[in-house]
Amino acid sequence: MNPRRSGWGHFIAVATTLLLAAGCATVRTHVAVPPTLTTLAELPGLPGVRYAAVEDEAQLEAAVAAAVQAAPAGQPEVAILTVSGGGSRGGFGAGVLCGWSERGDRPEFQVVCGVSSGALIAPFAFLGPGFDQRLRAAFTGLSNHDIYRVRNPLAALDNDSLVSTEPLARTLAGLIDQEALQRIAEQHRRGRRLFVLSTDLDAQRAVVWDLGAIAASGRPDAGELFHRVMLASSAMPVAFPPQYFPVVAGGRAFDEMHVDGGLMVQAFLPLPSREAVGAGRRLQAYAILNGKLGGDWMSVSPRVVAIATRTFHTIARTQSLINLREIAHRAKEVDAEFRCARIPAHFSLQSHTGFNQAYMQALYELGRTTMRDGAGFSDSLPGLAPDR
Fold this sequence. Notes:
- With 388 residues, the chain is an alpha/beta fold.
- 39% of the residues lie in helices and 16% in strands.
- The protein contains 13 helices and 11 strands.
- Strands 1, 2, 3, 6, 7, 8, 9, 10 and 11 form a 9-stranded mixed β-sheet that branches. A two-stranded antiparallel ribbon has the order 4-5.
- Helix 3 runs antiparallel to helix 5, helix 3 runs parallel beside helix 13 and helix 7 crosses helix 10.
């Protein structure tokens, strides 16, 4: 199998074969946190750098409120942003941000949230226009061999994924280098917040990581942990390897298995109450969806791989709409202005490879020109009917 010509559907086909042979496979040792200790688990020496998205909802909203309150005095409108998952469609979100910079009115976001490919965009959205060149390179200049290396199928039986993401780890280390980490840490100390979400697969729960707190921790391994959280948030299960995080709970050592945050939600944006934000402040909540909200019609081949791939994309699209409707509803409740940018219905180009440069470049240019020309965001969301 040539990784440069194979789509995600091929991963599913190979995964089925491997699962049939799993009875004779040897997997890595994994000491999961037992359910009675799940909520007590912490990274050694790093308490408070993450939240359980459900159980810690109040604390997370309080953290967002504090970030909004930390905005410069005399700034009545405070912008916060969420960037969704979408795989190679992340080129659209990268283009939106760069086009916004070109237009000259891109705000400094007090809070940035990201899921999956959105987690890879989020640090650059947080850092601002000065890092647009790196953002563009990440979503227009990379190809499959910069992101993953396909394992030998027999070797994959002894592993936790079909591919190795060592190339992506090296790529991230170059894009989010010590300079970027230092700037993120400085902005965290100013009160701004950078959150990404992963899935704790053992506990089946969403975990929100405070990347700014990690960058500002002063630990010598802060950069490595920062990069591994980003890898975890974008680790499509079976295809990409999970990330394992050593934790302590009840005086005992365990390790958590984390994968793509998109398993739980495609977009999240904790919005605090109007009272928590305070008088004289108004929230502007922005969402960038790396996908279409309306159905994208296609004739599906009556084959297992095609049906499985189409099913995955359908679930992700429906989940995106549900998540964004929840954010929009919450924004209305707390008197925040909500705007969403998404791939328009007329974009018909499709990619049949994992990370096709021409496809990502086309999406980047679409997002860039749409945003630069002032047509990027809308305050309305479509229903579940196909786009026309």
